[in-house]
User: What shape does this take?
Amino acid sequence: MSYSFDVKKELLSIVDHSCCRKAELYGFLLFSNTVSDREIRLLTAYPEFRARYLNFLMEAGVKKFELACQGNTAKKYLCRIAHPRDLRSLREHLGGVSFSSPLRIDHSLLEKECCRRAFLRGVFMANGVMVSPEKNCSIEFKTAHHTIGGEFFDFCKEEFELLPGSTVRNGKKLVYFKSWDSIKDFVALIGAKNAVYDLANREIEHSFRSTANRRFNCDNANIQRSVDAASDHRRAIEFLASKQISLPDPLSEIARLRLEYPEDTLSALGQRCDPPISKAGAAHRLKKICALAEEKGGA
Assistant: This one.
């Protein structure tokens, strides 16, 4: 099962007041597979989710459902409502909302904060896709109705001060959350408490791994730079030796030490000098050797 399923399954245990059930159903319908004033199609991969909203629909007075199961391997469960009487009962149950195009959010059902949270939960149950925190954690909502997608974006920002992103992908409006804080805030709002704790723990693990990786990459880069510099030093020293070019004693000493201790750091080389010199002093002497080799025609 997916991470989305695990979070949504937790939400199935939430029992709300009648007003919140209406708001959740409304959110679910607006972001369902097909919604219009002629028919509504609810399509889900999980029978548990269909059962929850069938109960909500029966509360709304819907009496005739066309139920079907699609697909051979990856099954999907369909509920279709097309009878004019049932569509009318449903709209009346939801306070006279319209499902005509262009779809818009009717805020008359969402006056209470608990109902606004329930609305978010319905949208997530119908359309939310949550990528596992083990990958690049995110929540996405995708709809072919650009107006409703834009209004949902504004709803998240204005009602709950969430910070979603928005774009168009393959002709559909996409609203998404990608930062850990915004994802945790959204999941908390819809009532998935266990998921919030899990996300907090995974964020700590992710941060720890990222820090460790950055340090590892930084150390590797520093090591590689040291190796490259040591190689440049040896080439310059060997070139000058091949040309029988003598070096002043301080440079001759550091050249001998570099060849004798190829893996030493500049600090270690400096400490081997007599008398010992600083890292900067060792670097300065080796830099002078490289400059002399370049002046004499070395690569």
Notes: The chain has a mean pLDDT of 87.
